[in-house]
Design a protein that fits this description.
The complex is a heterodimer.
Chain A: E1 10-12, E2 15-19, E3 26-30, E4 33-39, E5 45-52, E6 60-63, E7 69-70, E8 73-79, E9 86-93, E10 96-97, E11 102-103, E12 117-119, E13 137-139, E14 162-165, H1 167-172, H2 184-189, H3 191-197, E15 201-204, E16 217-218, E17 225-226, H4 253-266, E18 270-275, H5 292-300, H6 324-341, E19 345-348, H7 367-374, E20 382-385, E21 405-408, H8 410-420, H9 427-434, H10 438-441, E22 451-454, H11 463-466, H12 502-521, E23 525-529, H13 558-561, H14 563-578, E24 601-604, E25 619-624, E26 630-631, E27 634-635, E28 638-644, E29 650-653, E30 663-668, E31 691-694, E32 698-704
Parallel strand pairs in A: 14-15, 14-23, 15-18, 18-19, 19-20, 20-21, 21-22, 22-23
Antiparallel strand pairs in A: 1-2, 2-8, 3-4, 4-8, 5-6, 5-9, 7-8, 9-13, 10-11, 12-13, 16-17, 24-25, 25-28, 26-27, 28-32, 29-31, 30-32
Helix pairs in contact in A: 6-7, 8-9, 12-14
Chain B: E1 3-7, E2 11-12, H1 17-29, E3 33-37, E4 43-44, H2 46-61, E5 66-69, H3 73-82, E6 89-91
Parallel strand pairs in B: 1-3, 2-4, 3-5, 5-6
Helix pairs in contact in B: 1-2
Classes of the chains: A alpha+beta, B alpha/beta.
């Protein structure tokens, strides 16, 4: 039995053609045929432009014949194309009337919005030739990677320990010692390190294609070239960043990224992508034509009634996320990354924008967010919102979730930072954060799993800088230190920046340990910023988006310099993963509802069972009852945490344990290594079972077993 | 089980992939395992990687073997970072291939 539609019906300058299939959009291979399909509501005509690989001038331009158009979709099949040697783009005819939202320009060659492989910025930092007519060039992708038995891991969300990583920053720096620095392959080489650290989920900062030369300039401070290092500026939503692959120059970035995911999965590590669906790299009215602006401006962008670009992203334009066709594109992009790349989850940059209507107004039930929450293919994919935008919409605790969405809990960051630097009047808020922010998430029954807890992320200070600087130092960014967050809730421990004072440096290490302790003993999903585990500094720069140099790159020699911090991180992470009682999915009752003798969770203070109530208090303690957290019928241990953020020492009266159990010390951040933390499971018993002394700015963790 | 050596040319990409694929498959069709001599081969493209893996899978389906011999450092690096290396047995010289 043979299909009868495998024969060409048209010929154009020697190429054999027939009407294409409108769906799916993009370039799709069927045997010896490639189907090209592109949607534009307002274009009047469309031409497919074909190049040989890397050649400046096209070798063929094929108009879409009338019979190749279905509704608002242009599609054609080309037979016997050597598609490994092809790059393609489109010319669109249509009105140029910006006041009506139309910006068609037939002189431009446009990238396919559904391009799955994009060439043009293949090797990181290689200066582009801006005179070239077609800069970001679509290619046809090989989508037959052999995954063998691999699948997304579907790790329970409350069991995750997330590690936020930048592909280049992770392995470009001193001492990284990898064969392929700054690439997907470089991360594969570091998998043993990630396993040793103990994290089980890597969140990659944007890996969709972007242009590191967007807004590139020379720093007036140090003369270095500043680049778009972070990549929060999409050129394409379906293609991986070529220059993040050691094989990008060969166009093999798709296979290289897939191999990274496969290797991570083999080692029990999930991969979450940070995705940027709020704007594109085309900027505002003065920006370049890359794709969307020329394909169908009015469809892809939120426009003012006068035809200007709304700027809720702070980056010049705003993707029209709740236009039905753009919505479909976003859903298809996410499905594609899950089905073709086995991605485990997504973190949505400035996700509040995804809930704005086409006029920019926030909606109560945004159709895009609802679609994603109920999508069948994304059914077990982690969905994490950065629940605010640059237009002032702040939705932490109120992001429309349908029980599916988690949030970056910005309030956790702010409260814990204030507590760390001994701010008064923050304890009540800190308590909410430690128990999974029920004030934010309990009323909607979203559970603890809605809260992604973090103290540091790519935006802002690193953890070491948080305890080394009172103020940001972004002069090297060339914006007169006006960029970046001003309200950091940081404290330099007595001196601004690096210093030789042993006492200050000791306190900084202690504060770093306090921070990771609070992160790992809080209910919710902890997220660690890559490099914090080795005490990475950005020299006070809290917005290193453009610093493609040692400011942002991890310095792996810090591992030796800050060995006590690395050791502390490893053990704290292992402790969390060992104790189910730290990883509840739903909020705690604070009651003994199973009549086990102790509530599931209880607050204490310097007196057992008597939590401090004053606004100025800086001491608090809590106890988790392991009998409420069983694994295969075996109860977890009791865990007691005494937090003293006061600058004086305090004694904490200990709650009495059930008969036969005794308190053992796991960690005491006030102690020097190696007494600061013990191997989980090998904690020594303490002599005084009635009281412990917590030194200034110290946290003690006891295990009752 | 008999084996036959098949020598790949300097590059394996879309320009010669069909020809090379046919050459390898012809040996497998005869019921013989293949020693793919890649000593001269300096570059393997995405298409080329698929020629290798497809050949390996055809061989396996027939109960035959496909060995790679003399893979250059550059080619091995490409195979390694794209994960294709894990599917193959590689040997430095033809003499090292177990027979």
């Amino acid at each position: 039995m043979h299909r009868v539609d495998l024969f060409p019906t048209h010929e154009y300058q020697g190429l054999k053609l027939r009407a294409g299939r409108p769906y799916p959009f993009g370039a799709t291979v069927y045997g010896n045929m490639v189907n090209f399909s592109v949607y534009s509501r307002y274009a009047t005509d469309c031409t497919l432009v074909l190049f040989h690989k890397r050649e400046e001038k096209p070798f063929m331009e094929i108009p879409f014949f009338k019979e190749f158009r279905m509704g608002n979709v242009f599609s054609m099949i080309i037979f016997d194309l050597d598609y490994e040697d092809i790059e393609y783009g489109y010319r669109m005819d249509g009105p140029y009337r910006p006041e009506e939202g139309h910006r068609f320009d037939r002189t431009k060659i446009l990238l396919d919005p559904y391009a799955k492989l994009i060439a043009g910025r293949d090797v990181w930092g290689q200066q582009p030739d801006w005179d070239k007519l077609y800069q970001y060039r679509a290619r046809v992708v090989f989508d037959d990677f052999d995954w063998e038995n691999d699948m997304p891991l579907e790790t329970p969300v409350n069991d995750l320990v997330v590690y936020e990583m930048h592909v280049r920053n992770f392995t470009c720096g001193k001492g990284a010692n990898v064969k392929h620095p700054g690439t997907f392959a470089g991360i594969v080489e570091k998998i043993p390190y990630l396993k040793e650290l103990g994290i089980n989920c890597v969140e990659l900062m944007p890996v969709h294609e972007f242009d590191e030369f967007e807004n590139s300039r020379i720093s007036p401070v140090d003369g270095r070239q500043l680049r778009n290092l972070w990549g929060y500026s999409n050129v394409g939503f379906f293609a991986p960043k070529a220059a993040y692959a050691s094989t990008g120059r060969f166009g093999m970035q798709v296979d290289e990224l897939k191999n990274l995911v496969k290797r991570m999965h083999e080692n029990g590590i999930e991969v979450i992508l940070d995705v940027v669906f709020n704007h594109t790299a085309e900027g505002n009215e003065n920006g370049p034509y890359i794709s969307y602006r020329g394909i169908d401006n009015k469809t892809y962008y939120m426009l003012t009634p006068e035809g200007y670009y709304f700027n809720f992203s702070g980056c010049g334009n705003t993707l029209n996320c709740n236009n039905p066709n753009v919505r479909d594109m976003i859903v298809e992009s996410l499905r594609y990354w899950v089905t073709d790349y086995h991605i485990d989850g997504f973190r949505f940059d400035l996700a509040a924008i995804l809930g704005r209507d086409q006029n920019g107004n926030p909606m109560s039930n945004p159709p895009l967010l609802e679609s994603l929450a109920h999508d069948p293919i994304l059914g077990k994919t982690k969905l994490i919102a950065e629940a605010w935008d640059a237009g002032g919409l702040y939705q932490v605790g109120s992001f429309p979730s349908w029980g599916r969405w988690a949030e970056w809990n910005g309030k956790f960051r702010d409260s814990i930072r204030r507590f760390l630097k001994s701010d008064e009047q923050v304890l009540r808020d800190v308590r909410e954060r430690i128990i999974g922010s029920p004030d934010l998430y309990a009323s909607q029954k979203r559970g603890i799993k809605a809260s992604v807890n973090f103290i540091t992320a790519h935006d802002g200070f690193t953890l070491m800088d948080l305890v080394s600087y009172n103020n940001k130092h972004n002069e090297a960014n060339g914006e007169n230190n006006c960029d970046g967050e001003n309200h950091n809730n940081s404290w330099n421990c007595g001196y601004e920046g690096e210093c030789d004072d042993a006492g200050i440096n000791r306190l900084r290490h202690q504060q770093v340990k306090n921070a990771v302790t609070l992160l790992m003993v809080s209910q919710g999903i902890p997220m660690v910023l890559s490099g914090d585990e080795m005490g990475n500094s950005q020299q006070g720069n809290n917005n290193a988006y453009c610093q493609d140099n040692e400011i942002a790159w991890l310095d792996w020699t810090d591992l030796e310099k800050n060995a006590d911090i690395f050791r502390f991180f490893k053990r704290m992470i292992r402790f969390r993963r060992r104790h189910k009682v730290l990883r509840y999915e739903d909020h705690l009752s604070h009651c003994d509802y199973r009549n086990l003798g102790y509530p599931d969770f209880s607050w204490h203070g310097v007196k057992a069972w008597q939590p401090e109530t004053g606004h100025n208090n800086l001491t608090s303690a809590f106890m988790l009852n392991g009998m409420y957290a069983q694994t295969d019928g075996v109860a977890d241990d009791f865990i007691y945490v005494a937090m003293n953020m006061h600058w004086e020492m305090h004694g904490f009266e200990l709650p009495m344990l059930p008969q036969g159990k005794a308190w053992h010390v796991f960690a005491n951040t006030g102690m020097n290594a190696p007494e600061d933390i013990f191997e989980p499971g090998e904690e020594p018993v303490i002599d005084n079972q009635n009281e412990i002394l917590a030194g200034p700015r110290s946290i003690i963790i006891l295990v009752g077993k | 089980m008999t084996t036959e050596v098949y020598k790949l040319s300097e590059e394996l990409d879309s320009f010669n992939s069909q020809e090379e694929q046919d050459g390898i498959l012809a040996i497998l069709e005869k019921g013989q395992s293949v020693i793919l001599d890649m000593t001269a081969c300096k570059y393997v493209s995405s298409t080329g990687l698929r020629v290798l893996l497809y050949s390996k899978k055809v061989a396996a389906a027939k109960g035959l073997k496909l060995y790679l011999v003399g893979v250059s450092e550059e080619v091995m690096d490409i195979m390694n970072v794209t994960g294709f290396d894990s599917f193959f047995d590689t040997y430095r010289t033809i003499d090292e291939v177990p027979r």
